[in-house]
Amino acid sequence: MKHREAWLRSVAIFNLAFLYLPILVLLVFSFNASRLAATWQGFSWHWYGQLIENGALHAATGNSLLVAVVSTALAMVLGIPAAMGLERLARRSQHILGGMLLLPLVIPEVMMGVSLLLLFVMADMPLGLTTVILGHTVFNLPVVIVIVRAKLRKLDSCLEEAAADLGASPWRIFRLVTFPLLRPAILGAVLMAFTVSLDDFIVTFFVAGPGATTLPLKVYSMIKSGVSPEINALSALMVLLSMNLVGFSLLLQRR
Amino acid sequence: MKLYKMSVLSLVLVSVALGNGCQRGSEPGNRTLHYFTWSDYVSPELLTEFERQHGVRVVIDTFSSNEELLAKLQSGATGYDVTVPSDFMVSIMITQGLLAELDAKAIPNVALLEEHLQRLAFDPEHRYAVPYLWGTVGIGYDSAAVTPPPDSWAVLWDPRYTGKISMLNDQREVFGAVLRSMGKSMNVTDPETIEAAKQKLIAQKPLVKTYASEHYDQLLASGDVILAHGWGGPVARAMRERPSIKYVVPKEGGTIWADCLVVLKSSQKKELAMQFINFLLDTRVAAQTSERLLFAASNREAQRMVSRQVRENPAVYPPADLVPRLEWMTDVGKAMRVYDRAWTELKIH
Asked: Which of B7, B32, B39 to mutate to test the interface with A (most CBs of A within 10 A)?
């Protein structure tokens, strides 16, 4: 019995190392004094200082934040009512419609990027921040729907029925009963959607236009002109931010 | 109540974003210039200077390869004004009708171009494009480890350096090097010559540590490779870390390239775009750019204004007697398929 536990533990450790070692290396080398990514020459904050001074990165960060905030808000406005509506449907239509709404999670992102691009071009919409925001809303929507629906299923329908019994209007029930109960899930969904949007490369790559270079696009083009520890520093910050957001989101969903 | 606030807030944000987006597209009179360029290809100080001079805003977006640039423009992206494709991409973009004709009077700095950049085959009269930065492809090597100093592509086949060689991860450049070493043009189209070149590359493969286009400067500087086939600029960067690094364009000759400034046909601000091009070609501006990026400026006066270290570095400014031995890469048309296949066969061999 003990033997088996040791074996399981080593598998777990191997898995964790496999997942986290690359990130750890990235973090450690972001503090490297040398310009070379592969040789260690002592500890330094130099590259973080460079980051702060790099104006092009500020613009890209601003774009990324704007896109993440707006696309998350849009996904919320569309996604929460969609989740509630789905739960009230008959079993069969719930399955069909629910499956259709999840499609963006399942189809390859490249295909989504190409199809969105074709759509925007056909609609004669100039590519730019607006198209990036719309694209991100498309893949954020299922994220919101999945998380909110999971919470809705766990809610006790008696509470809503009791409120209705006592004469509350549907809107009042939503405001005073359903929404407060959903709040942790909604906050969790906000953070998750925000993170997914902040990290997205592929869809953004296809639908970005003038003035819409986001942080991941910028990092990609920076690598082409040589890997510098500045990229390590930037990636380290992005990884830490994303991990915090996701961790926080999971915490909220558990409540 | 909170929900109400939240939805109002999100609506406000959405309308701000959409409004912002529409404004960009539909107002041709606004003074914003969109420059689509390689990452880190222009100094922020110089941009600020142009912005002050002309009372405009310059927005930078970046691409990472010529192919990406072309794909973006072909897919119907409009709104970019000025961009910088490499030589061979200029001719593709001209054929596809993506470029606007330049007004010679608006860009007087064209007169200051290096002589050998004045009548380029793909655009001899600068009707569409003006060379901006240029350079060569050669061999960066560690003079402490490679003796005698190499002067021929043959050094990349020397078994003494097994596992210490890096080649560009770029099919036309790699075939270019081997074709020159065979005494042929790097733009050959006949399948037999390409096949022979492929055989030579297969024979070289066991010696090659990696095919890398992005980080060979680091490989050189850290000593992981001592011979690197590559562009001069990154080799010059490696020299700063490891002074024993040197650069040579072999006697059989190598590639010459130039990134060229162009105005896109879809631009709504062609006049401003040409003023911007003229500004980038200005002697002082070009010298500053050349100094920082370690590529040669197309402006012949600029050379005198860069530091001696940069001016006398053959990786940045090729010596004048080298120019006749350099060759431009041209569109090989249908033979591209033969190259594609040979490259794949080399990679999977």
From this structure: B39
